[in-house]
Sequence to fold (200 residues):
Amino acid sequence: RKLTMDEKVDFEPLNSLFNASDKTVITKAFQEAFRCRFSGLSDIRKARWKNTFNLDKIHQVDRLFGIILHLVNTVLYNNMNDANAILKLFPSSFNEKLKKGIAKIIIQNYDYWKEASNQTTISAVPKLVDFEWRLDVKRSSNTVSYMAEPTVMVSMQTQEPQQKVGLLAPSKQVQFEMGQDSLNVMIDGLRRIRDQLKKL
Fold:
């Protein structure tokens, strides 16, 4: 039996990849999609994809994310580490150059994605799956009417402890603000952790 993807799968969103500035941007999108396969894209990433691929609406980002992830999952589930097999998943009318480029990206990342997918260790604590930050300026507070204090807005996607192998654990987004002093304390702590890990 010829192995193909579900006939109802809409490949049209992949055409927006033509709007990418270069191949590296497309590769990064596939890697981000896999990394965010449990949590979904954060609002910051959605906005970035919207601009990168010149999309008009956020729901178009969701459709692009969905087809990329569906394509990757299909390849991994069926152990398709051959470019020719991946090319057969696309409709005959799909752009030849684009599907060959997509197949190449998948093959280049296949081993890492497969290993990550096969991990079945059940964790007892939440796990960090994504991390983003942006600089901001605090203009006022409860006690001061005007100020210009630089701060860092941090967003972390965490995955809750997995209760059963094969059952996806829920994820949540944690956001918080850090000032210069708090950031210095955090950086110092992370450096200590790094130094301890190097000794192991």
